[in-house]
């Protein structure tokens, strides 16, 4: 696959002859039906530099070109802010989100969100991008967030999040010492009702799987590495609380503990995933933030 900044270029193989263009893009190139339909409607797909329909039958050596970017607008107020950029290219940007920041505007948080800052950043750079969040973090969870700069990258990353090569790892500081030093928490998570954000362990919920490994133990506390196999809302927080080891400072699933830390001690510290275009594996890390290091210092002293 050859790509420049705005074009996805694909070469048809001999065994792919006679496939319809739409079928090829859906099953061989793994593009979503929605993306293909929109690109076709916007006349952003060409074969051998000519516009064709999605029913066009491909021939060996045909060159398919899909224009990735298009002019877009987003109803978010651009806002200048300092962004901690961990990685960036023409397709994606990965940021280290601080604690206390909402990722996307809501009725309660119209300003000061990561998306406000990102849209300002894109406009300053004169980049034709809107904010497409690939993963999200709770307001008081810090760490790595991936944002796609175009619809193709967003589609590819959303697809790959379901695969084994996409790895999301967190660090948490929990109450108590976990008996097993590593293992799997496999418990269904259920939303109690529309009026609450709280989740519970309940057989009516969706299957939720979290791998854990104790990195270091303190007196009645552990530093734990957690890797998500599913991505449910509050998954790590609910799972740890259900085992009797709630995260320090988690007011929703444990208790407020301002003498130790003023938020849940949870940090999205590592991402490993295939790049949406060239498929190389990106491995990105973010160090533990100061308030969690300070909590560890307090635990070591007690």
Automatic annotation (TrEMBL):
The active site is at 138. Pfam families: PseudoU_synth_2. One of its GO terms (molecular function) is RNA binding. It is an enzyme of class 5 (isomerase). Its EC number is 5.4.99.-. Coiled coil: none annotated. SUPFAM superfamilies: Alpha-L RNA-binding motif, Pseudouridine synthase. It catalyses: a uridine in RNA = a pseudouridine in RNA. Residues 19-77 form the RNA-binding S4 domain. One of its GO terms (biological process) is enzyme-directed rRNA pseudouridine synthesis. Keywords: Isomerase, RNA-binding. CDD domains: PseudoU_synth_RluA_like, S4. It comes from the Bacteria. InterPro entries: PsdUridine_synth_cat_dom_sf, PsdUridine_synth_RluA-like_CS, PsdUridine_synth_RluC/D, PsdUridine_synth_RsuA/RluA, RluA_PseudoU_synthase, S4_RNA-bd, S4_RNA-bd_sf. Belongs to the pseudouridine synthase RluA family. Responsible for synthesis of pseudouridine from uracil. This is Pseudouridine synthase. The lineage of its organism: Bacteria, Bacillati, Bacillota, Clostridia, Eubacteriales.
């Amino acid at each position: 696959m050859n790509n420049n900044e705005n074009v996805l270029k694909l070469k048809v193989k001999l065994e792919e002859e006679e496939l319809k263009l739409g079928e090829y893009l859906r099953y061989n190139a793994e593009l979503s039906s929605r993306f293909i339909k929109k690109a076709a409607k916007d006349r952003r797909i060409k074969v051998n530099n000519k516009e064709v329909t999605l029913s066009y039958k491909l021939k060996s050596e045909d060159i398919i070109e899909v224009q990735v970017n298009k002019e877009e607008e987003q109803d978010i107020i651009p806002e200048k802010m300092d962004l901690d950029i961990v990685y960036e290219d023409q397709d994606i940007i990965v940021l280290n989100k601080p604690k206390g920041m909402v990722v996307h505007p809501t009725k309660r948080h119209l300003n000061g969100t990561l998306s406000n800052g990102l849209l300002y950043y894109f406009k300053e750079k004169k980049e034709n991008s809107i904010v497409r969040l690939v993963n999200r973090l709770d307001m008081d969870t810090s760490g790595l967030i991936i944002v796609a700069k175009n619809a193709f990258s967003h589609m590819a990353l959303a697809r790959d999040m379901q695969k084994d090569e996409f790895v999301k790892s967190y660090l948490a500081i929990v109450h108590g010492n976990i008996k097993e030093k590593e293992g799997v928490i496999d418990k269904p998570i259920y939303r109690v009702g529309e009026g609450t954000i709280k989740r519970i362990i309940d057989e009516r919920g969706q299957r939720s799987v979290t791998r854990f490994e104790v990195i270091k133990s303190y007196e009645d506390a552990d530093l734990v590495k957690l890797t998500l196999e599913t991505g449910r809302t509050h998954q790590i927080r609910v799972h740890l609380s259900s085992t009797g080891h709630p995260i320090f400072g988690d007011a929703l699933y444990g208790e407020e503990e301002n003498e130790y830390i003023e938020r849940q001690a949870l940090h999205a510290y590592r991402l490993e995933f295939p790049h949406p275009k060239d498929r190389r594996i990106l491995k990105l890390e973010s160090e533990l933030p100061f308030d969690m290091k300070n909590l560890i210092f307090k635990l070591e002293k007690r």
